[in-house]
Automatic annotation (TrEMBL):
The keyword Secreted applies. GO terms for molecular function: lipid binding. Its main location: secreted. GO terms for cellular component: extracellular space. It is found in: Secreted. It comes from Channa argus. It comes from the Eukaryota. Residues 37-259 form the Lipid-binding serum glycoprotein N-terminal domain. It holds the Pfam family LBP_BPI_CETP_C. This is Bactericidal permeability-increasing protein. PANTHER family: BACTERICIDAL PERMEABILITY-INCREASING BPI PROTEIN-RELATED, BACTERICIDAL PERMEABILITY-INCREASING PROTEIN. The cytotoxic action of BPI is limited to many species of Gram-negative bacteria; this specificity may be explained by a strong affinity of the very basic N-terminal half for the negatively charged lipopolysaccharides that are unique to the Gram-negative bacterial outer envelope.
Length: 485
């Protein structure tokens, strides 16, 4: 019987926990990702958990109940109740609340009543008989307090703080065999069975929490994103709970898989306000994006080689010394009508910054030009440095992440030259126009189409909104859970 109660409590809690755990810890560091579960989300999780329990009752199995009952002058009777199944359940919706005193949740079920059937066997001296029974258990009350914490490796932990349970009454009807002999002594069976059920409810609640704790400890706190990046998501501190919400802070740092090198900057603190109109909110600081940029940069991925066939195949312009010579007069004289190649690379780590309603990106790069000789060698020509700044907007529409960007500034300077000095003004203007009308236009087309929001295995996000704040972006959303077998 107690199996039902423990599964009820734990699964309601699990349905809430898995919304943000789908999740080596350096204590005291600032979290780069924060998750806030509001009371609206907690109550929705409770409602989904109650529905799940109600639909799952037919699959619940119960252990046999055995014991010995002293029925006065007749002595003791050994009995076993087996094959116990539920035929009806009156399950009032539990109350679940944030419980700051224990940094966890307090769950209460009041007035649960269940009707069951099964088989009975008794042994009395040389008499060994069996039959069927009907049992009704009335007014079961369970109050449980669960504490959330953090283990040394940054996993979320759960533990039972307290549990109180009582069973109001039990009614049993025996059928078959010599049940008429034992029915008058039902009061003896009732007292014993009531005590057995009540005695086992809380130990089994604690047992399920132990299993849940083991499950949480087995979850990864580091995930490989691709062949270059890994994302670390351990908790950075203890969960924070008040009467209206739960706040979890995660490390949220990307690393280069090969080097796992720390970036030369730290996550800065940020405060994300609770959005009670939504079930949960997630805040991602600019540190998370910049750690990804640093990991890619340290892996040497912010560079590209460009030649005539890769870039200019769709236009009637070729990448050669004649074309580029329009901006560098001496070039075609020194290397007449020779194909060229360009090597683009970032001079510094690209830096993202979040400002109210705007995302900023600074990219400092360089391009080194080569002339391709007939024998296959490359002759260095010059190196240009460029500094560019972009700004953009991000928003959610139709449950898709969308946005737009614009180029705010682009400057080009001559860093080194093997062909003599030359002015870069005209080339800068051409490149500025080319970036705006080609690169930015194509990026905006893709951003306008948007990207679908992440989906969970048994839930989807709805009514989502996104805001860009100082130092972080925040998404608030509701969720719809789809219960399946």
């Amino acid at each position: 019987m107690c199996c039902f109660h423990q599964r009820g409590h734990s699964n309601m809690l699990l349905s809430v926990l898995l919304l943000f755990t789908s999740l080596s810890c350096t204590c005291g560091e600032n979290p780069a990702i924060q998750f806030i579960l509001s009371n609206k989300g907690l109550q929705y999780g409770k409602h989904v958990g109650t529905d799940w329990i109600q639909e799952s009752l037919e699959r619940v199995t119960f252990p046999d109940i055995s014991g010995e009952v002293d029925i006065g002058l007749l002595g003791s009777i050994d009995y076993t109740l087996s094959d116990i199944t539920i035929i009806k359940c009156d399950l009032p919706e539990p109350t679940v609340e944030f419980y700051p005193d224990a940094t966890g949740f307090k769950t209460s079920v009041q007035g649960l009543s269940i009707a069951l059937t099964g088989g009975w066997r008794t042994h009395y001296h040389i008499i060994d008989i069996s039959g069927s029974f009907e049992m009704a258990i009335f007014n079961i009350n369970v109050v449980s307090v669960v504490e959330l914490g953090k283990d040394p490796n940054g996993h979320l932990s759960v533990s039972s703080v307290s549990c109180d349970a009582d069973v109001g009454d039990v009614d049993i009807q025996f059928h078959g065999g010599a049940s008429w002999i034992f029915q008058p002594f039902v009061r003896y069976f009732k007292r014993h069975i009531t005590n057995e059920i009540q005695r086992n409810i809380c130990p089994n609640v604690k047992g399920i929490l132990v299993n849940l704790e083991s499950y949480l400890q087995s979850m990864n706190v580091s995930f490989d994103v691709d062949q270059v990046l890994t994302l670390d998501l351990p908790l950075t501190g203890l969960p924070v709970i008040n009467a209206s919400g739960l706040n979890l802070g995660f490390k949220g740092e990307f690393y280069n898989i090969k080097t796992h090198m720390e970036p030369p900057f730290k996550a800065q603190p940020f405060t994300m306000s609770e959005q009670q109109g939504y079930m949960f909110s997630v805040g991602v600081s600019e540190f998370t994006l910049n750690s990804a940029a640093y990991a890619y940069y340290s892996a040497g991925l912010f560079q590209a080689d460009i030649n005539d066939s890769t870039v200019f195949q769709y236009v009637h312009v070729h990448l050669n010394t004649t074309t580029v010579g329009k901006f560098i007069p001496q070039l075609p004289h020194m290397f007449p009508d020779q194909l060229m190649s360009l090597k683009f690379y970032a001079r510094e780590v690209p830096v993202f910054s979040f400002q109210p309603d705007a995302v900023k990106l600074g990219f400092q790069g360089a391009v080194k030009a080569f002339a391709l000789q007939p024998n296959g060698t490359q002759s260095p020509l010059f190196t240009l440095s460029f500094d560019s700044k972009f700004s953009g907007k991000m928003y959610i529409s139709g449950e898709r992440l969308k946005g737009s960007i614009q180029m705010d500034n682009f400057t080009l300077t001559l860093a080194a030259s093997e062909v003599g000095t030359f002015k870069t003004d005209a080339l800068e203007k051409v490149l500025t126009i080319g970036i705006k009308f080609n690169v930015v236009t194509q990026v905006n087309k893709k951003l306008g189409e948007g990207f679908p929001l992440p989906r969970m295995k048994r839930a989807q996000l709805v009514n989502s909104v996104l805001n860009v704040e100082e130092g972080f972006i925040a998404m608030s959303s509701d969720a719809e859970v789809v219960l399946t077998d």
